[in-house]
């Protein structure tokens, strides 16, 4: 088992960062009237860990007896029937799914499937009617229609189900949904907190961490706890005993994007654009989220760019990121950004060096 899973705290009492949030969540459950919740914050900050620990607090150890199912639904949409396939993770009293996996058909998931799940109210051992917990991941990726349907579902079934929504950016979640939930911001942990977790894992694994080593791993992690733990494990595999100046390897995909940025800066031509497209495709099929590819690519390009171009390039990156959100095929928008960048950069080179 990877350390990120092995050392994921299972209960709210055991969390090492976001202790205050954990304490508040405990109080919320103790009051027996848990509202709908919206967890948001950057990737690797600990949202999922808090959600799973909260679920355990609400449902007890039964929350851990989960089964993964690949389920098919046939939805009657007036003149036609729509086939939908989705993976769910469920225990007796909760279901977890990512409705945005259904792409542009996400609203059918929200309209029909979530409604159906929400309606089935469990009855506890004392014969009292309980509520079902629905965990919805990546709600910021849901279309507007799906978010409107979700709002109606939240209102209609609030007595029989509690929704726990999780996303990276709350600004992409409609006001109507945000206002019906208790919003919980999960900040990226500080470097000191990350060091604490790394040292805890090191101790549990019986490792000798040279002084300053955990701090270097934390610094390279960009304040992502997941990334810091993964880096520590990679270092352990590459070389142990650790040395204080041991290199902390970047993630493979980041190195690959750095190569793409070098390719773009070396040559600006249709042929090079075509090659870059192939490389971006490779990243996408390896499940690197398109927003992250664009962000990292911008970061790499900015590192090597003249100050006077930076503003314009950032403007176009934001423009294509926005268009990517509206559209379906991310590759078009990343490629369009690369083409735009090439044209700006080439014009700059010609104007400067002739
Ligand atoms: N409170 C915590 N105390 C100790 N370790 C933690 C805590 N929260 C998270 N971790 C560690 O960090 C890893 C990443 O956390 P988690 O999966 O919860 O992040 P996330 O915010 O849901 O990320 P993403 O948005 O990318 O899914 C976990 O696997 C766990 O090992």
UniProtKB/TrEMBL annotation:
<dbReference type="InterPro" id="IPR003593">
    <property type="entry name" value="AAA+_ATPase"/>
</dbReference>
<protein>
    <submittedName>
        <fullName>EMBRYO DEFECTIVE 251, EMBRYO DEFECTIVE 2775, replication factor C 5, replication factor C 3</fullName>
    </submittedName>
</protein>
<dbReference type="GO" id="GO:0003689">
    <property type="term" value="F:DNA clamp loader activity"/>
</dbReference>
<dbReference type="Pfam" id="PF22534">
    <property type="entry name" value="RFC_C"/>
</dbReference>
<dbReference type="GO" id="GO:0003677">
    <property type="term" value="F:DNA binding"/>
</dbReference>
<dbReference type="GO" id="GO:0006271">
    <property type="term" value="P:DNA strand elongation involved in DNA replication"/>
</dbReference>
<dbReference type="Pfam" id="PF13177">
    <property type="entry name" value="DNA_pol3_delta2"/>
</dbReference>
<comment type="function">
    <text>May be involved in DNA replication and thus regulate cell proliferation.</text>
</comment>
<keyword id="KW-0539">Nucleus</keyword>
<feature type="domain" description="AAA+ ATPase">
    <location>
        <begin position="33"/>
        <end position="192"/>
    </location>
</feature>
<comment type="subunit">
    <text>Heterotetramer of subunits RFC2, RFC3, RFC4 and RFC5 that can form a complex with RFC1.</text>
</comment>
<comment type="similarity">
    <text>Belongs to the activator 1 small subunits family.</text>
</comment>
<keyword id="KW-0235">DNA replication</keyword>
<dbReference type="InterPro" id="IPR050238">
    <property type="entry name" value="DNA_Rep/Repair_Clamp_Loader"/>
</dbReference>
<dbReference type="GO" id="GO:0005634">
    <property type="term" value="C:nucleus"/>
</dbReference>
<dbReference type="Pfam" id="PF21960">
    <property type="entry name" value="RCF1-5-like_lid"/>
</dbReference>
<dbReference type="GO" id="GO:0006281">
    <property type="term" value="P:DNA repair"/>
</dbReference>
<dbReference type="InterPro" id="IPR008921">
    <property type="entry name" value="DNA_pol3_clamp-load_cplx_C"/>
</dbReference>
<dbReference type="GO" id="GO:0005663">
    <property type="term" value="C:DNA replication factor C complex"/>
</dbReference>
<dbReference type="InterPro" id="IPR027417">
    <property type="entry name" value="P-loop_NTPase"/>
</dbReference>
